[in-house]
Design goal:
binds magnesium ion; binds uridine-5'-diphosphate; alpha/beta; about 15% strand
């Protein structure tokens, strides 16, 4: 039998980022409570991070939290994005293991039971790998598929394919993540970077329970760029490749034009060739400057040293110690 490394573990923290989820949140709370009832040997803390919702999400959460002491709420002062919301939850979590799960029930809470089993066997990170994704558009499926593969090709740390943020992490991994201060966060990559013993649990990604995706194309692209740029300097090297390629192309053109002019009576006329060359080179240069800009923008954001998020209110917590928050405001409000 496998040695149970976390035999004495008691508290499980579940972190649920929510942004305008009024249509699903009641059902999510219900299903998480069912999970809690099924895992009787553990204490639970359900940390809902309200990422500046404009709808009734926070109000619904507050109503439920007033009745149930295991529910805690972190209310952001505005929308900071999914990755940052999850980070705030991880920071405040006190559990021996922390589980990240989406609010829209696309990650089935029942899979958490399998994750816990693996954790008890001694794994430090148990991540959900998507076997199948139901109810997603062809476009999202195709882009997600190519993104994970491109990312893996570019990244310096191997990042598991078709894996989102649905995962369980042990306390040592959580503490390591908390020590990582970067502002552009691509959590699944950061967790891979941490190391320890990691294992996958395959699952079928369900359709969104209700409501619409909060990840429009713009945010998806942002996340993809974050993933690539935060985990690799290869784009910079590729831009050198672009430069070399276009320069050698131009070289060939020059040799060709000179040969014609010197050894024959014909020569290349007109501005078409010229324009093409200018546009091509201009394009390549702009792309390379853009790539460079991505990295410089990141350095700029880092040196500003702004807090990663601002919490308007903590609800349901007993206390917020300094190591539990990166927000300048950490007041606990009563429910
Ligand atoms: N989310 C968030 N802040 C955002 C966008 C999304 O906290 O700015 C949450 C959202 O409420 C959900 C999770 O992140 O719990 C995943 O978002 P969504 O389901 O919209 O993304 P998709 O599954 O379509 O990629
Ligand atoms: Mg979703």
């Amino acid at each position: 039998m496998t040695k149970l490394k976390y035999k004495n573990a008691r508290l499980l923290s579940i972190v649920i980022p929510c942004y305008n989820e009024e249509t699903v949140i009641e059902e999510t709370i219900k299903q998480l409570k069912t999970l809690k009832a099924e895992l009787k040997n553990f204490d639970f803390e359900l940390i809902f991070v309200d990422d500046g919702s404009h709808d009734r999400t926070r109000e619904i959460l507050k109503n439920h939290a007033a009745k149930d002491r295991c529910m805690k709420i972190i209310g952001f002062a505005r929308n900071f994005g999914h990755q940052v919301a999850v980070t705030a939850g991880i920071d405040a979590a006190q559990g021996d293991a922390v589980v990240l799960i989406d609010a829209d029930l696309q990650d089935p809470p029942s899979v958490v039971k399998e994750m816990v089993v693996k954790w008890l066997e001694g794994y430090d990170v148990v991540y959900g790998t998507r076997l199948e994704r139901q109810g997603e558009s062809k476009f999202k499926l195709a882009t997600a598929r190519s993104f994970y593969r491109l990312l893996n090709y570019l990244s310096d740390v191997p990042i598991p394919l078709d894996t989102g943020d649905f995962r369980l992490m042990s306390r040592p991994v959580v503490e390591t993540l908390k020590a990582m201060p970067e502002r552009d966060r691509f959590l699944r990559g950061m967790v891979s970077w941490v190391g320890f013993r990691q294992v996958a649990v395959p699952y079928v990604r369900a359709e969104r329970f209700a409501g619409i995706t909060k990840y429009p194309l713009r945010k998806m692209l942002r996340l993809a760029i974050d993933g690539i740029v935060s985990f690799s300097a290869k784009p910079l090297k590729i831009s050198v490749g672009f430069g070399l390629f276009s320069a050698s192309f131009a070289m060939l053109g020059i040799i060709y034009a000179l040969t014609l002019r010197i050894f024959t009576n014909v020569w290349i006329e007109g501005w078409t060739a010229l324009m093409i060359a200018v546009l091509f080179l201009g394009g390549v240069q702009l792309i390379c400057v853009g790539i460079l800009g991505e990295y410089i923008g990141r350095i700029y954001r880092e040196v500003k040293q702004r807090p990663l998020y601002v919490v308007q209110e903590y609800l349901g917590f007993d206390q917020i110690k300094p190591q539990m928050s990166r927000s300048p405001v950490t007041q606990i409000k009563q429910l």
